[in-house]
Specification:
The structure is a homodimer. Chain A is built from 9 helices and 12 strands. By secondary structure, chain A is α+β, with helices and mostly antiparallel strands.
């Protein structure tokens, strides 16, 4: 799927200023809005995920987008398309999981239709009341880059679910990583702290398609360079048991962490600084690596594909 | 698809008061919200509809839900899942059609993913500013039943698209009916007039699943009887060339007309009156027919199925 190319065509066709951030910011209504879909065989497999986990994750990824804007998650609608053989227990478990992930937002509607495969599309609405709202284009030279959430765990969990063998991981560690993939934790507290306390504009986005991609999206939209110290990025200690764990941390997707560039980092975890230039620079002990558009796109995280 | 059964389970699982009307009314934000999906092979076929028509209809059915609430259509997001072979022209034509049907609402986001079949899920937001918002439970005995939109045309159009042969219809008439199905007219003026001028509560819903179903939904939610004179229902004159055209008018879906029960019908087309009792009574010259829950469900309109 040539997703980025298609989005360019949509922007041109609609002449829209709204498309580009994790949410559309609808100032006149005091809300943000986002819609994200999960397709069976593309984003998940029924062999790996229970209906509860599917409901949970479908809502979590949309709550994460609301958090990336800085708004307060308020309402959700869910469109479900299901094979005709689906039983009522599936629906019940799905909605219990969806409710669990809603972080206080209310599920207020949607529809159910038939289909060959499961298709889930969730829309989330957030309130901007008493919040400063982010934009990817708001990064400014001199700001600190702050982060919430471990990175790399979800991608390793997906590898485990797909049957890849990591002999050095314990049973507990395997469970930890697969659970990170199936039921991602949303960074609602980090989002609220920034949106309620920053006095100046800030950029924020979630790391749904990988940390490097998220950093790059801010760098590109703001025309700056994001300079990051690899050792400051939070990740699970046992990830180090994996060869090339650095790639999982930078390019693995679906951790649904948040990164932001802020003038006042307070007590948040700082991983780097916004500098003049473009692209993303990752500093390892002793050397640095520079990523431009092509590097990011070549390494772009591929969600589950059957 | 046991859609009504599933919705009951969802309502029980969520303990939600919001589900039941065409839109969820989110009073604290001053908005209404709705999400509706179209699935290839269930709601449409690519053999019948161009990408432009698909974009148009996907948006029109959601704008129609906003109109049914009485709110002003403001914003839309569109989630598209497309087979990998889809070309960029499809996307472009789809969005031109979507924009055409948006009636001034802005398309502000959504996403694109891969899938085996086309799946379209649209969310629409409406503003309740200076509008009185409808509920299906607001019908009161003595109110007049008013209507907008021709009925039966879309269902006949679908039959024509499916290859049914109606020798008495002219080429122009065939085009008229298929076009009614592929590019339904949304009753935005009727909705605005009612929502801006009615001084008392009113019920309103669209006729997406057929006129009889819409009448019945209001009767059931309001615990009243809707008493309708068949001859007052607007329909295309040439529909009379079809045997059993009365069934198309009452049970054919996807005309996306609106019906409302109001205290002050003004210049609107009155088709009947709200009375004590339950269900729907249709009066023909010389006799009356009474419809209860089972009659409606037995005749419920089936969207296109491959």
């Amino acid at each position: 799927m040539k997703e980025k190319e298609f989005i360019k065509i949509i922007k041109t066709t609609l002449k829209s200023d709204y498309i580009g951030d994790d949410c559309a910011y609808l100032k006149d209504l005091g809300i943000v809005m986002t819609q994200d879909s999960l397709v069976e065989g593309v984003h998940f497999s029924r062999h790996f995920a229970t209906p509860y986990q599917l409901g949970f994750k479908s809502v979590a990824v949309n709550i994460s987008d609301i958090c990336a804007s800085g708004a307060e998650p308020k309402y959700l609608t869910i469109a479900l398309s299901l094979p005709h053989i689906t039983d009522t227990d599936f629906i019940k478990e799905f909605y219990i999981g969806a409710k669990k992930a809603s972080n206080g937002a209310k599920i207020v509607g949607g529809d159910i239709t038939g289909a060959d495969k499961i298709f889930i599309s969730v829309t989330a609405i957030g309130s901007t009341k008493n919040r400063k709202i982010s934009a990817r284009s708001h990064a400014r030279v001199g700001q600190k880059i702050v982060i919430a959430g471990e990175h790399g765990s979800s991608a390793l969990g997906l590898n485990l679910l797909k049957g890849m063998y990591y002999p050095r991981l314990s049973e507990d560690e395997r469970f930890y990583f697969t659970n990170s993939h199936l039921m991602p934790k949303v960074q609602i507290g980090f989002s609220e702290q920034i949106a309620k306390t920053q006095k100046t504009d800030y950029a924020m986005t979630d790391t749904s398609d990988g940390l490097a991609d998220a950093l790059f999206n801010i760098a590109e939209a703001s025309k700056v360079m994001l300079d990051v110290d690899f050792d400051k990025i939070p990740y699970a200690e046992s990830l180090k048991k994996i060869t090339d764990y650095e790639d999982l941390i930078l390019f693995g997707g679906e951790d649904y962490g948040l990164i932001a560039t802020v003038d006042d980092p307070q007590d948040l975890t700082v991983i780097g600084e916004v500098k003049e230039g473009n692209g993303v620079k990752i500093n390892y002990p002793g050397f640095s690596q520079f990523f431009e558009k092509n590097d990011i796109e070549r390494n772009l995280y591929n969600h589950f594909k059957e």
